[in-house]
C-alpha cells in the first residue's frame, strides 16, 4: 500500500472523535431539547460501535500496553476541570448557606449507598470468592456521583430549565463534593483488606485512616484548594481591573488553574479532586466571575449566556466517553451476566432513593417527596467511579505484599464497576424524558419594574396602560438592590404551584397557581412597593407578599 495511506491509531482517533463531536454539534438541539439526550450517552454508544468489539477502528490497547494508566490520568484530567467548573458555577457562598442540606444529602447518600451496595455485592458475588472486605472496596467505587454526567443531565441541558434552581444546585454541589470524599471510603476498605489478615488491631486501622485519609488528604486538600482558588480569584480580578488579560486568556486561566491544583495536590499527596472543587467554590465565593460569551442578535436577548466552561466540558466529555465506550470489557461481563444484572437493578432502585425519601423531612432544600425521589434517582455514576476503580486496582497491586492473593478481587473489580457505569449512563441518560412528570413547570424570567416615577410626574400623553396606572398612582416604586436575596429572578410555574427563585437559586416564595397555565412567552414583572413585592403576569397582579416574611 502507498505509505501515505497508512494512518496511525492516533490519526484515526482524532478523526473519529472529531466526527462524533461535529455530528453531535450539528444536531445538538434535537438530542438535548427533543430527545433529552446528552453527549455522554452519544459518546459511549459511538465508542462501543467503533471500538474493538464491533468495527475495531478505535482501540486504545494498540496505543499503549498501560491502558489503565492512560484511563486513570484521562479521568483525573476530566474530573479536575469539571469539579472546578462545578464549584465556580454554584451561587456565591452556596456551600456555606446550604451546609445543612448539603451535608445531609452528601453523607447520608454516601454512607447508605456504600453499605447497601457493598452488602449486595457480597451477597451476589461471594460464591465466586469475594469476602465482605473485598465487597466494601467494590462498593466504595460507587460512592461518588459523577459531576460530568450530572452536568450533562441536569446542569446544562434544556431539561435543566424545568428543574427548580435550588434542586439543581443541590445535585451539582453534591456531585462536585462527593468525588473527593470518595477517597476515605476507598482507603478505609483498602486498609481492611491489607491489614486485617495480619491481625492488626482495628483501632490502629481507624487511627491511621482518620489521620491520613480524613485530616491530611481531605481536610488539608480542602484548605489547599481554598487558598489556590482565592489567590486565583484575586489575581484574575486584579489583572482584569488593570486590563492585562484578554478574553481568550480567560479560558487558559480557567483550565490552567485546574491543572495547577491537581498537579500540586498530587505532589503533596492530598485529595486533588476535593481540592479542585473547593478551589472552584472559593473562586466564586464573592460572586461568579467566569468569563461569558454573550449571545448576539435580538432573537437571543432572553437566552442564558454561553460559558467557556460549557464549551470545554462538551468537547472533553464527548472525547472521554468515546474512549470509555471503546474500552468496555464486554467479554468479561458474560461469566457474571446474571449477577451483574441483579446488581444493576439494586443500584437503580436501592442505592440512593430510600435514603433520600427518609431524609426529606429533615433536609431544608428537599420540599416534598417528589424532590426526594428526583434527587435520589439522579445520582449517576461515571468518570468518578472509573477513577476510584483504577485507584483501588493500583493500590492493591502496589501496596499488597502478595497481589496474587487478591486475584479474584482484581478480576471482578473492573467489570463490575464499568457495568454499573454503563447502566447509569443508559438509565440516567434515557430517563430524563420520563421524569418530566417530576415537574411540568415552565421557567419564566421575571423582569424588574424600571419605572421609579409617580403618576403625577408622567405627562398625560405618556400615561401608561390601566394595568400600571394603579401601581404608579401609589407611592414611589423603590427598586431593590441587584443582590437583594428576597427579590425573585425566575418563576417556576406549574398547573398547581408557582415557585419564585432569587438570583442565587434560593426559593423565596411559593403559592398556589389560580390563574391557569402559563406559557414560556408569559411576561412576569416584579416590583417593590413599600415593604411588599408584587408579581404581575401580562399586566394582572397575581401575588403580593411582605418582604420581611421571606425566609
UniProtKB/TrEMBL annotation:
InterPro entries reported in the protein's UniProt record: Cation/H_exchanger_TM, Na+/H+_antiporter_fungi, Na+/solute_symporter_sf
Superkingdom of the source species: Eukaryota
Protein localization: Membrane
Residues passing through the membrane, by range: 12-31, 36-54, 104-125, 137-155, 209-231, 251-270, 311-330, 336-359, 416-438
Pfam families per UniProt: Na_H_Exchanger
Membrane topology (UniProt): Multi-pass membrane protein
Record's keyword terms, sorted: Antiport, Ion transport, Membrane, Sodium, Sodium transport, Transmembrane, Transmembrane helix, Transport
Xref: Gene3D superfamilies: 1.20.1530.20
Region listing for Disordered, in residue ranges: 453-474
Span of domain Cation/H+ exchanger transmembrane: 23-432
Principal location class: membrane
UniProt record similarity statement: Belongs to the fungal Na(+)/H(+) exchanger family.
Protein's recorded name: Cation/H+ exchanger transmembrane domain-containing protein
Organism, scientific name: Ogataea haglerorum
